[in-house]
Amino acid sequence: NICSCRPAAMLLLELGLFPSAPVHPTLAVDLDLLDFTSTLFRVKQPNIHGWTSTLQIFLCK
Predict the structure, then answer these.
(1) Which of 8, 24, 39, 50 is the 20 to 30 A CA-CA neighbour of 18?
(2) Residue 28's beta-bridge partner residues?
(3) Does 46 map to a domain?
(4) What is the extent of the structural domain holding 17?
(5) Torsion of CA 8, 13, 17, 21, to 10 degrees
């Protein structure tokens, strides 16, 4: 159930989830997963080293 006094998108953000739309979101993605993905694309290399470096950076946060 969603409180009608505040937009669903704002409630999702407070719960650590990024809404798929500003009005009536039907999907949400965990903010930690988005942070991990962002780090992966910054560190990305075409081998396993990029993946392991990203994982190490993310887990040390």
Answers:
(1) 50
(2) 19
(3) yes
(4) 8-59
(5) 50
The single residue listed with the structure tokens 């950076």 is 57
pTM over 0.70: no
**Distance in angstroms between the alpha carbons of the first and the last residue of the chain:** 33
Q: Which residue has the higher pLDDT, 55 or 30?
A: 30
Task: Kindly report, residue by residue over 27-53, the tens digit of the pLDDT.
Answer: 999 999 999 888 888 877 667 887 888
Residue 39 belongs to a domain: yes
Task: Write b or e for each residue in 42-57: b if 16 or more Cβ atoms lie within 10 A of its Cβ, otherwise e.
Answer: ebeeeeeeeeebbeee
Q: Give the containing element (helix H, strand E) for 44.
A: none
